[in-house]
Design a protein that fits this description.
By secondary structure, this protein is of the alpha/beta class. Helix content is 42%, strand content 12%. It contains nine helices and eight strands. Strand 4, helix 5 and strand 5 form a beta-alpha-beta unit. The protein is globular, with a radius of gyration of 18 Å. The two termini are 18 Å apart.
């Protein structure tokens, strides 16, 4: 029997980890394309745009030459971001069995939500309340709460501090390479989940502590009550 991972608190990502926001991402891409005069697009390209924007990578090559000028791309990005934060309120839905998993974890570990969304905490807490997830979290940190969001460690460190636990005694759980990068820089344990936009191969390159299929496997790998 494998030894269970011992941590004192959990810092959990939102999109792709707790909720499926794929539909919101595609609606955001639609809004961005419409803003620059494009009526249709490939959904796979829309997802790739989301992945690159999360990692602050260029999306220029995903557009034909006539749309690659900086002003057009900026117009697309602005419309995309505005739409995404609107649609997540109605289109993001909890991944299967998330409620049951958080109900198991929360009596054993203080939980903090640490999200890359650059919006006020009030908006995130409203969404969490609508999804019946808010009650499980003792702290919420958004990208707006720190000077440098993920992949920098600031949000992770802030979340740990709000829980009153040293970062080295926490685990970051997320679906993205930036979650793992932020956690490793903050010296936390890192647990990558395969329920989001990134493949196992991409996540393996970041060398997380563990890779699991989804957040529902956490109770089996953590030493509950540690």
């Amino acid at each position: 029997m494998k030894k269970k991972l011992e941590v004192k608190a959990l810092l959990i990502d939102l999109d792709g980890t707790l909720v499926d926001s794929t539909e919101a991402l595609l609606e955001a891409a639609t809004a961005g394309y419409i803003a620059i005069g494009i009526d249709t697009f490939d959904a796979a390209v829309g997802i790739e745009i989301a992945r690159r924007m999360e990692q602050r990578q260029s999306i220029k090559d995903l557009f034909s030459q006539e749309y690659r000028n900086p002003s057009t791309l900026r117009k697309f990005v602005n419309a995309y971001i505005d739409a995404y934060y609107i649609f997540t309120l109605t289109k993001a839905i909890p991944l299967p069995n998330v409620h049951e998993t958080l109900q198991t974890l929360s009596p054993n570990f203080p939980l903090a939500l640490v999200t890359l969304r650059h919006i006020p905490k009030k908006q995130i807490t409203k969404e969490l309340a609508q999804l019946r997830l808010l009650k499980y979290f003792k702290a919420v940190v958004t990208a707006r709460d720190v000077k440098k969001p993920k992949p920098y460690p600031d949000a992770v460190v802030k979340g740990a501090k709000q829980l009153g636990v040293s970062a080295k005694n926490c685990a970051v759980i997320g679906d993205s390479v930036v979650d793992i990068q932020a956690g490793k820089t903050a010296k936390t344990k890192t647990i990558a989940v395969l329920s989001g936009l990134y493949s196992r191969e991409e996540l393996e390159k970041e060398k997380p502590t563990l890779i699991i299929e989804n957040i529902n496997q956490l109770p089996k790998i953590l030493a509950l009550g540690s």
